[in-house]
Amino acid sequence: MNLAPMRYKNYVWPHNPKIYEITYQRSVNVNKVPFGRYMMTNLGRSYRVLKGEGEFVGEGAYDEFKMLATVFYEETPGTLIHPVWQVSNAYFVALSLKQEPYKDYVSYTFEFWEQCEEYIEYPEIVKVGDSTQSSSDKKTHTVVSGDTMWAIAKKNGIALSTLIALNPQIKNPNRIYPGDIIYLA
Where are the domains of the chain? Predict the structure, then answer.
């Protein structure tokens, strides 16, 4: 089976890396409750990590690695197209040589972290004492048992970063308690 080449931003691998590993993670918060018990709160899916290793072989191998390194130095996320997994927006977070590079042979490792599209939106800055927003305009949510900031944000169509910015009274977004007032706007 011939697979399409892996691509990231404007870089196309001349041949696919030989090893891929993808990691899926879920964040879970554990809180101790009375009588030696505990309560777990699902904070949601975390970012996926795509790791791998490959080789550039033949005339210009080191030049090919330098072109890949140039893409690594770009600080913004980009589209990662893998021949088997789905397309995702990702950060290129690691690139390393596995041995001393030669003009005709370079062995390397790489790592990409998926950027969750739900959290790309940046929060709007709300100035304290801003006269354009009256207290009657503020929508709120009263926390009930089992609520998480992530779930509240998702339910109300708000980016988690925006919800956190709107609620500076919440010192630790991973710990909210029934009865807490969460501002939604």
Answer: 7-115, 135-183
CB 92 within 8 A of CB 114: no
pLDDT-flagged residues of the chain (< 70): 1, 116-137
Instruction: List C-alpha distances in Å: 145 to 53, 79, 172.
Output: 45, 38, 17
CA neighbours closer than 13 Å in the CB half-sphere of residue 84: 9
Fold of 7-115: Elongation Factor Tu (Ef-tu); domain 3 (2.40.30)
Question: Which CATH number describes the domain made up of 135-183?
Answer: 3.10.350.10
Integer Cα distance of 53 and 16 in angstroms: 10
Q: How many CA atoms lie within 13 A of 27 on its CB side?
A: 12
DSSP 8-state code for residue 102: B
What local confidence, expressed as pLDDT, does residue 128 receive?
Answer: 43
pTM higher than 0.85 = no
| Total number of residues shown for the chain | 185
Distance CA 119, CA 104 (A): 42
